[in-house]
Amino acid sequence: MKDSFSRRDVIKSIGFSSGAMLLNPLFSHAKPEQKIMIERTIPASGEKLPVIGLGSWQQFDVGQAASERAALTKVLQEMETLGGKLIDASPMYGRAEEVIGALTTELKNNDKFFFATKVWTTGKEQGIAQMNDSFRKMGRKKIELMQIHNLQDWQTHLKTLKDWKAQGKIKYIGITHYTDSAHARLEQIVKAKEVDFVQFNYSIRSRNAEKSLLNAAKDHGVAVIINEPFEQGALFRAVKGKELPAFAADYDIRSWAQYFLKYIVSHPAVTCAIPGTSDVKHVTDNLGAALGKLPDEAGRKKMIEWIEKA
Questions:
Q1: What torsion, rounded to 10 degrees, do the Cα atoms 149, 270, 191, 178 define?
Q2: Which residues contact 177 (CB under 8 A, 6 or more apart)?
Q3: What angle do CA 276, 150, 111 make, to 5 degrees?
Q4: CATH assignment of 2-309, among 3.20.20.70, 1.20.1260.10, 3.40.50.920, 3.20.20.100
Q5: Which alpha helices (H) appear in 183-296, and where do they start and end?
Q6: In the prediction, which pLDDT does 26 show?
Q7: pLDDT (tens digit per residue) in 76-94
Q8: End-to-end Cα distance, the chain
Q9: pTM of the shown model
Q10: Which residues 6+ apart lie within 8 Å of 272 measured at CB?
């Protein structure tokens, strides 16, 4: 919960009025044309997804007590109400798959979301067993996106996923990683057109993906999911006590989270960014980054220049 703590510090440091922006007025104060979430098309199918989703690493790894799950229930309710779709999980994330499955079943909104999870093991049979376990935990007969986590035994699992996609058990196939050092390998796989989705790290300060990976995904028709959008909270710590620059208003940016997220999703190759949170105010704030204007190339450069001086 390191990210959430540092984010709360930033909210407190910039005063109540800025903190108040994290509530639903982000949506209610928007102009009619700004209340429609920005979506991107999945090249493999033409299906559209809102550009902001939800990650579950750490935040959804909780026990069975109602007190531990109450905040997460609110997050999922708010996400559905505001139009969010993609929820990303993994067997690596402890109880996250089980918690997401249980809560969305209780809320009866299990089929309202785009579920993305992963296979994270070695060997064909082990992979099949783990993925079947994910289906059970998440309460699904079909999962929208199954990804190979951190490229672990990816060639073995890719064969299984192609079979499962043909059978209709999954809709899309993806690969993931979270370090710059893996970008070259991801790019090779993307260019071979082996997958529908690629997930990797990218942020306003960590821009290695801009060298070629993002453009490769766009050019080869592969959807992009971005993890580590806040650099595990480091971006919030970097701007603690600082006011948003005046030009942020030109892009309907009302918070630092939206500043960081709008930079990411303004890249035309990005399909969806997945900030993780267990705080309902934060999920509202994050989803607000899918409203209004996005920075153009000149705006993106200004955003980088400002943050590098922060």
A1: -30
A2: 150, 151, 183, 185, 186, 199, 200, 201
A3: 50
A4: 3.20.20.100
A5: 183-191, 213-219, 234-238, 256-265, 280-287
A6: 52
A7: 999 999 999 999 999 999 9
A8: 24
A9: 0.90
A10: 40, 49, 50, 51, 52, 53, 86, 223, 224, 225, 226, 265
Q: Where are the domains of the chain?
A: 2-309
φ, ψ of residue 67 to 5 degrees: the values are -65, -30
Given a contact cutoff of 8 angstroms between Cβ atoms, the answer to whether 174 and 150 are in contact is: no
- The answer for 50, left when phi > 0, alpha when psi is -120 to 50, beta otherwise, is beta
DSSP single-letter state for residue 289: G
What does the DSSP 8-state code read for residue 277?
-
d(CA 273, CA 38): 12
Are residues 115 and 145 in contact, defined by beta-carbon separation less than 8 angstroms? yes
- In which element (H, E) is residue 115 found? strand 114-119
